Amino acid sequence: MNSVNGTTAEVVRKILSLLPGVDCGGFGGCGKKSCQECAESIAAGESVALCPALGQDKVDAIAEVMGVPTVETKDEVAYVFCSGSAAGKARFSGCKSCKEAVESGFKRGECKDGCVGVGSCIDMCKFDAMKLVDGKVVIDRDKCTGCGACANAEGCPQNLIRMVPRDATNFIPCSSTEEDDEKVREICGYGCISCGECERACPEGAVSVVDNHAVIDYDKCVGCVACAVKCRKKIIVDTFHDLTKVKEKVAFVKCSGGYKASELYKKLGIETCEEAIEKVNPKENELCTTGCCGLGSCTKVCRYDAIHVVNGTAVVDPEKCVGCKDCTYACPKHIITMVPYKGQKQVPCSSTADYEDKAKVCWSACIACEDCMNNCPNGAIYMEDKHAVVDPEICENCNVCQYVCSRNIIKEMAVPEYNYLQREALGIREGE
């Protein structure tokens, strides 16, 4: 022992008085079975910051007792790297422990890497900082001391709980090792598809894809917004920035056809868009072959309440949409596309039918008259499969196309300017 103020027993007693006094049973970050054992180890020469649950003031006090220089503490809290929504937690509710649930195995369509929601980690927490809400583990950051007991394999056999800096603002709540991104989308709306966009966007090199999911190195992360903006699925939790503003693209439905189709489907007892496509021949029922079914398959997958069926057609609220693309995958007709989050014009029609056939089934279809294309001063409009398409990269948001459109179907996507934090993070200069 170094220079000590008193006998060994007295030093241990002083150190013990500064420790939490709540034994972690060997599961905490110190690795000791009790605070008594931890105090003895510190007195014997181990780090004065051996207990991770201590704040800087307590570590300084222990260093004074030991007569040694203090060390800087890591102020960390526990975080569950899983959204807790796809591992079959309802099925596992009768299990006695998370270990038992994991050992019983996962069924097809369940995330084998996710939180099973039994709550063994809660039993490990001696500071009342964790609770189970609807099968999801919730951590109270104010109560969490960062002891690390919950992150032990006994508390979380899935290794989903890790310690992060208390002041961290960006989190990626996914630990999926699934390689197939389509399967990830089917299993979990919050699943990382390991596209690598966040890794490429991070100016500090703090994000990397490990075992098919993105991971943040908090020693490098500065809390900017670049990864959240670039994330294709918008699953990165950003507690500092507003994700409804921090985005490059939003969803747009290429149809404004009204209630005709959805009314027919409802009369036939059809409840889903997929069922409508499978059971009903649109031509035999004077329906648009490419139009919105209006039964809301897209609305069911939206995590941000940004898309609703209005008068039989799906409509996106660009202010709520974060650009995750889930609705584009959910639409069986593939009529939802992604457009830049800036002012520009869009043509809400994807019909490939001739003018006469369009006129029979829809009052708001593009008739491919080419007036908008011929009058666009920037050449931003072209015809594709008998309907007009606006190139948002070229469109300067003038009103010429709307003025010349005889059917008044061209919509203006009027949205706010890019959030200044987003522009700064992505290196966007004024005027771009």
Structure description:
The chain is of the alpha+beta class and 432 residues long. It has three domains: 8-66, 3-methyladenine DNA Glycosylase II, Chain A, domain 3, CATH 1.10.15; 76-238, Alpha-Beta Plaits (2-Layer Sandwich); 249-413, Alpha-Beta Plaits, CATH 3.30.70. The protein has helices spanning 8-18, 35-43, 56-66, 98-104, 120-124, 181-187, 197-201, 226-230, 260-267, 273-279, 297-301, 326-330, 355-361, 371-375, 400-404, 420-425; strands at residues 76-80, 130-133, 136-139, 161-165, 170-171, 207-210, 213-216, 237-238, 249-253, 307-310, 313-316, 336-340, 344-346, 381-384, 387-390, 411-413. The strands form eight sheets. The chain has a two-stranded antiparallel ribbon. It has a two-stranded antiparallel sheet with strand order 2-3. The protein has a two-stranded antiparallel sheet with strand order 5-8. Helix 1 (8-18) crosses helix 2 and helix 1 packs antiparallel against helix 3 (56-66).
